[in-house]
Structure formats: structure tokens, C-alpha cells
From TrEMBL:
<keyword id="KW-0238">DNA-binding</keyword>
<dbReference type="GO" id="GO:0043565">
    <property type="term" value="F:sequence-specific DNA binding"/>
</dbReference>
<keyword id="KW-0804">Transcription</keyword>
<dbReference type="GO" id="GO:0003700">
    <property type="term" value="F:DNA-binding transcription factor activity"/>
</dbReference>
<feature type="domain" description="LysR substrate-binding">
    <location>
        <begin position="2"/>
        <end position="147"/>
    </location>
</feature>
<comment type="similarity">
    <text>Belongs to the LysR transcriptional regulatory family.</text>
</comment>
<dbReference type="InterPro" id="IPR005119">
    <property type="entry name" value="LysR_subst-bd"/>
</dbReference>
<protein>
    <recommendedName>
        <fullName>LysR substrate-binding domain-containing protein</fullName>
    </recommendedName>
</protein>
<dbReference type="GO" id="GO:0006351">
    <property type="term" value="P:DNA-templated transcription"/>
</dbReference>
<dbReference type="InterPro" id="IPR058163">
    <property type="entry name" value="LysR-type_TF_proteobact-type"/>
</dbReference>
<keyword id="KW-0805">Transcription regulation</keyword>
<dbReference type="Pfam" id="PF03466">
    <property type="entry name" value="LysR_substrate"/>
</dbReference>
């Protein structure tokens, strides 16, 4: 699987889902910065950036005018930004589908819910080299897509 926007060099891709990116942090950090009061409160929190760099887009879309989109910590991968969020180091922007368990357990909180999700062209894709795949791989490919799409 790969997150991004195709085409992916040398790979065939099938969309599993478009990413719905939501801000997440620990409940304690959300309370300490009163994040429930609105996106402008992010000005007092550390933004955890991943390589996709979508905080400026999210902040603009949801009218967080007083927040410096460039401040915060930078990570090369989304999972590293999420690890920092789980440790209470700031607020990460993450695909909702990747953090279901953390939200359900209460380790992370989405202070603005899913109503303020940034849905971009990028998504989660099933990828494989082009050409004929062995029957077992083809069966797994079909099953994964059925599960993802509820077909």
C-alpha cells in the first residue's frame, strides 16, 4: 500500500480511499490549549508537520487566520508525526483511517471532529508491479479492494 497521488513510478495503483486528514493530539494537550474553542487556538500549540506539508492548506480552509502555518516540528513520515502527537508534543494532521484505534482508546483526540477533515486528491492506494500477477496475489488484491469498498 502507498499513500500519495498516482501515478507511482513503475506501479499499478488502485484507490482504497481518499485521505480525510484531521488534526489530532492528546486530550491533555487539547485541554491545555483550549483547542475546542476553535482552530485559531492552534496558534498556541506546536504543529507537527509530515512530508506532505498540508497544515497551510488545512489552516486556510478552516479559517485559522492567526496561526503561523510554518511553525512547529517537521518529520519525514506521517507515522513519526503521529508518534510525537501520542507523546503529547503537539498536534498532527493525520488520515482518520490510520488513527481509528488511537481515537477509540482515547490516546488521541480529534478536537474538531471529522467535520473539519481536509479531503485531498491524495489517498491510500494498493500498488503492485504492472503485468500479470499470480492467482494468489490477484485473489488478495480483489479481496482487499472488496473490503475497502464494501462491495
Amino acid at each position: 500500500m502507498r499513500y500519495g497521488t498516482p501515478p507511482f513510478d513503475g506501479l499499478t495503483a488502485a484507490l482504497i480511499e481518499h485521505a480525510a486528514l484531521i488534526p489530532v493530539c492528546t486530550p491533555g494537550l487539547a485541554a491545555a490549549h483550549d483547542l475546542a474553542a476553535g482552530p485559531d487556538k492552534l496558534a498556541g500549540a506546536v504543529l507537527l508537520h509530515d512530508a506532505h506539508g498540508l497544515w497551510p492548506t488545512w489552516l486556510e480552509r478552516f479559517a485559522a487566520r492567526d496561526v503561523d502555518a510554518g511553525h512547529g516540528m517537521r518529520f519525514s513520515q506521517t507515522t513519526l508525526a503521529l508518534d510525537a502527537a501520542i507523546r503529547g508534543q503537539g498536534v498532527a494532521l493525520a488520515p482518520a483511517s490510520l488513527i481509528e484505534d488511537e481515537l477509540a482508546s482515547g490516546r488521541l483526540l480529534a478536537p474538531y471532529g471529522r467535520e473539519r477533515a481536509l479531503v485531498e486528491a491524495a489517498g491510500l492506494y494498493l500498488v503492485a508491479p504492472p503485468g500479470r500477477r499470480p492467482a494468489e496475489v490477484e485473489a488478495m488484491w480483489a479481496w482487499l479492494l472488496e473490503e475497502a469498498h464494501g462491495v
